[in-house]
Amino acid sequence: MATFMYLMKDSKGIKVEGTLKANSLDEAVNKLTKEGGTIISVKSASEGAFKGKMSLFDKVMLFIYKIRTGISLKALVFFTRQLATMFSAGLTLEKAITNLEREEKNKRLKKVMRKIADDIKKGFSLSEAMEQHPGIFNNLYIALVQSGEVSGTLHTVLNNLADYLEKIEDTRRKVLSAMAYPIFILIFLIFVVWGLFYFIIPMFEEVYGRFGADLPAPTLVAIRISNLIRENVILSFLVLLLAIFIVFLISLTDKGRYFFHSIFLKFPVVGNLLKNSIISKFSRTFSILMAAGVPIMDTMELTENIVQNAVFESGIRKARFMVKEGYSVVGAYRKTHIFPATLLQLIATGEETGDMDRLLGKAAEFYEKLVDSVIDRLTSLIEPILIVLMAAVVGTIIVVIYLPVFYLGLAISSGHN
After folding, report:
1. 228, 358, 383, 414: least buried by Cβ within 10 Å?
2. In the β-sheet with 15-22, what is the strand arrangement from edge to edge?
3. Helix boundaries (H) for 325-355
4. What is the mean pLDDT of each run of 10 residues along the chain (417 residues)?
5. CATH annotation of 153-417
6. Reported pTM
């Protein structure tokens, strides 16, 4: 007999979650129906939370597929909000999606809307139609829509989902805007240094060559690097592309992702920003899933997939297995040693009171404010730090270039003496 996880409401409207043994999904549903109450979801325990690993080739193909078929989060937020508004106003799903499809400017999303409307017309549910487009609708989106369909609260779920996506998009936009300036300055610095080595240093080398004077060691090293760059421009470019591609492949492996993500989290200031952003997303996702009635094991799996950081994914995965073995949710998360005490205390209180969705929503708001404060501090610190960095790098190269002039001046002055 197979094991099935279920979530249902009893006659008093209280949510009940558990597992039962049955030969098939239909038999499991029949057993639960006889107990009375309203079934929210029934799912095989072998599904969802314990799937097999993808190969590196599968990950590369999935990455390419998402680029080819994906849309921006902003576009998805707008679609979800519009669909929620139209459905709440009394339009059928097919009619609402057809109306949105007529006004949509994004060709990819327009094509997907047309296909979803056709599938709904054929008898598919909204979640089943959306499952055919994983490049746009992830597992979290599908799970929430499915829970709304089963519980008869799809309009509420769509509104909550739109709110959730808006908050996630807002947090991501703030983090990206904070990171954009330093990344731009660093890229600009690389081009400046490359220009100095490719154009400026060869000019000074030619001038110094006319004097036939002995050059100081730092200047000789700079000239050799310059010659190496100028003589191997195409090769250097190809090596750079190869290095980027290798790093990309390594970042797709489990160990590579974990290595890079653990380094990112250890960066001064920036690491704290990323950690607070991840915890905010984790709390917000956990909250909306619990409020929608998604079973705890599925909730933990979906939050693992949504945090997009290998260190936190590993911790959540370990916690899932500990919960399966009988640990409490807060006990499992505490043993991972990656979640802050404030969040753990709110989870513990939520487990005791049965109000975890509301408390985790409060946690999400708290960490979103922390993200804002870190961004403000980072914005005030990053500009002077980057100016000092640029001055140090460019200044060092210029000093190295002019060292022979200083030496020549000293030699002339000592000769006059």
Report:
1. 414
2. 15-22, 2-9, 38-44
3. 329-336, 341-353
4. 67 68 72 74 52 65 76 89 90 92 89 92 89 84 85 84 87 81 86 89 83 80 88 85 92 90 87 90 89 85 86 92 90 93 92 89 90 80 84 89 74 49
5. 1.20.81.30
6. 0.69
